[in-house]
Amino acid sequence: MDILLVASAFNSLSQRVYAELSDEGHRVDVVLASHGTDAVRAAVHEVRPELIVAPMLKSALPQDVWQEHTCLIVHPGPPGDRGPSSLDWAIAEEASEWGVTVLQAEAAMDAGDVWADGSFPVPAAGKSDVYRNELSDAAAAAVLQAVRRYAEGSFKPRPQSDPGIRVVWRDLLRQEQRRIDWEHDDTDTVLGKLRGADSQPGVLDELCGREVFLHGGHREDRLRGEPGELLATRSGALCRATRDGAVWIPELRPRKSSGDPAPFRRPAASVLAGFPVPPDSGPGMPSSNERPHWLPEIAAPLELPPDRTTWTDIRYRQRGSLGFLAFSFPGGAMSTTHCRRLLAAYRYALTRPTSVLVLGGCRDFFSNGLHLNVIEAAADPAEESWANLNAMNDLVEAVLRTTDRLVVAALGGNAAAGGVMLALAADEIWCRAGAVLNPHYRTMDLYGSEYWTYTLPRRVGAETAERLTSRALPVSAASAARIGLVDHVVPVPAGRFTAETEELAAALAGDPDLPRRINTKAGARRSDEERRPLAEYRREELARMRAVFFDPQASYHALRSAFVRKLPHGSARPLTTGDAR
Q1: CB 252 within 8 A of CB 207
Q2: Count of alpha carbons within 13 angstroms of residue 437, beta-carbon side
Q3: What are the residue boundaries of the structural domains of the chain, listed by start?
Q4: Least C-beta-crowded within 10 Å: which of 126, 384, 474, 570?
């Protein structure tokens, strides 16, 4: 069928629905509702779809559109649930199970007939993590079922007036309900509030006399202080005392009215570093633009003991001949500092006696490449772009030059741009079935680097590599496997991915053919280096990227600024599968 996706943003769920409907053979076009109702009407007129699907919508569809066309809306709640903060309430009320509903658009919000629905367990994770994983799995399955039912023509959707459906209206979850009472809330309560708003909208609070939104929260088992007291920093995060413990907060977002020129999410310590020094802070440490000088930096051991419950974004563990280097950065973005720390950890992992090294393996994002928010907030975004890209290249090169063991990239979630190219440096790529890959840089109008001109064509061929990097469309895990972009699709829920990866890695390490594969790999790297050194690929890619970074008129700068500030940018014309071809 010809299907038009209408979405407020082409976010993770919209991309997954797009990719999986395309896999089913449908012609799918996309229009962003953020461009306004006229843009939606124009897209409907141009595409003339047989069906309209809205995977993620923050505003109502125009009445004439849903009256003249069947429009299926994805609601992140079970049948009968209504309101704009459905998943937020599920986490706030500690629901063990939640649902998703595909319903037909009508005048009343979330009140239309039900075409399909599904349920999922709610883990102790951040809202955005649950949204991209458990909810996304259930929503994608429900959308595919609803589209099949519509195509068959015989299915009668279930009205929500059905006595088996309990209608519950949940109001918008407001900041006054999210606010943390540091004097009285215990750690579990604080974590629940932080996790329920980790990506959007954050929890409004005050630090050093400035209003900020707190993003993300993780338990700390040892540090203690007066409730609300800032205790330490670690790798860009802040540790703050609760009534009965402490939590790590990875990111802050200054409130727009605070006067901060960069009112968007970025590492918490770097935001706080720009605030006035508290009068009772003491001499502290040397000043830094990455952390407040009056707080101590407390490192976590790379190999964290099993009895510790604390936050760290990079961890190494070993099981016999298997090494596991796990990392998890908010939003999948990797700043210059992230890349350098991960490279140091990777070099440490190479000193360990292993035959298989697994890179990644966590649930949720693998990597989305450069940290655009940190770049945008930098005093010189061009210089920071350049530094970040070179740090990413250094990391990828280290993986490419590893010839004494097999390296596996384990993608538990989505990857994009340089993050995909980081995975391509490994010998094998394992990808969770629900992950979506964007192996291109076109969203920022960039040529790209991270040795993609070497790694991508050798996996998928020159023609497919050109198509993937130029068409700027998401690829499902299943499609990635079909074209050779990934080696193995892991069909497990997000919560099982780490354990399943460990079992697969054990089987790989026990393969009698492993020593031969490692020797063959080393020989192939030598041959490739003689044919064309890695330095040449890097030099050519970086020359093209540098020309853009240091050109003030390049579209990259406007695109980056709009992206980090979540502003609409670009054409309102629908993105079409036909255009991509």
Answers
A1: yes
A2: 30
A3: 2-172, 176-273, 314-495+515-550
A4: 570
Q: Which amino acid is at 341?
A: R
Reported as type and span, the H/E element at residue 345 is helix 336-350
3-state DSSP percent of the chain in helix, strand and coil, to 5: 40, 20, 40
Superfamily of domain 314-495+515-550: 2-enoyl-CoA Hydratase; Chain A, domain 1 (3.90.226.10)
Residue count of the chain, please give it.
581
Residue of 48, 41, 83 lying closest to 62 (CA atoms)? 41
- Quote the CA–CA distance of 377 and 208 in Å, as a whole number: 20
Tell me the average pLDDT of the chain: 94
**β-bridge pairing 406-412 and 428-432:** parallel
3 state DSSP class of 190: helix
What is the 3 state secondary structure string of 439-506?
CCCHHHCCCCCCCHHHHHHHHHCHHHHHHHHHHCCCEEHHHHHHCCCCCEEECCCHHHHHHHHHHHHH
DSSP string, 66-122: HHHS-EEEEESS-TTEESTTHHHHHHHTT-SEEEEEEEE--SSTT-SPEEEEEEEE-
CA torsion 85→256→32→569, rounded to 10°? -170
Report how far residue 131's alpha carbon sits from residue 136's, in angstroms, rounded to the nearest whole number.
6
| Element (DSSP H or E) covering residue 7 | strand 2-7
Strands 168-169 and 81-82: parallel
Long-range contacts of 382-386 (CB under 8 A, 24+ apart): 382/549, 382/550, 384/336, 385/549, 386/545, 386/546, 386/549, 386/550
In the chain the first and final C-alpha atoms are separated, in Å, by 17
Which tokens hold the place of 554? 């390049």
Which tens digits make up the pLDDT trace of 253-285?
999 887 788 999 999 999 999 886 665 544 333
Residues whose CB is less than 8 angstroms from the CB of residue 7 and which lie 6 or more positions away in sequence, other chains included: 14, 30, 31, 32, 33, 54, 55, 56, 57
CA pair distance 497, 499, nearest whole angstrom: 6
Residue 287 has pLDDT above 50, yes or no: no
Nearest partner of 335 among 400, 429, 426, 269, judged by Cα: 269
In percent, how much of the chain has pLDDT > 90?
91
The alpha-carbon radius of gyration of the chain (Å, integer) is 24
- Rounded CA-CA distance 504/275 in Å is 47
**Run of H or E including 356:** strand 356-363
**Burial (0-12, 13-18, 19+ Cβ within 10 Å), 298:** middle
User: 534-549 and 381-400 are packed helices; what angle lies between their axes, rounded to 10 degrees?
Assistant: 160
Q: Report whether pLDDT(288) > 60.
A: no
Closest CA to 233 of 181, 305, 294, 323: 294
pLDDT, tens digit (0-9, with 9 covering 90-100), for 69-96: 999 999 999 999 999 999 999 999 999 9
Residues in Cβ contact with 430 at an 8 Å cutoff, skipping those fewer than 6 apart: 408, 409, 410, 411, 486, 487, 488, 489, 490, 501, 504
Three-state helix/strand/coil letters over 148-182: HHHHHCCCCCECCCCCCCCCEECCCCCHHHHCCCC
- CATH number for the domain whose boundaries are 2-172: 3.40.50.170
State the chain's maximal CA–CA distance in angstroms: 74
Choose among 288, 285, 255: nearest CA to 270: 288
Q: Are 323 and 355 in contact (CB under 8 A)?
A: no
Q: Under CATH, to which class is 176-273 assigned?
A: alpha beta
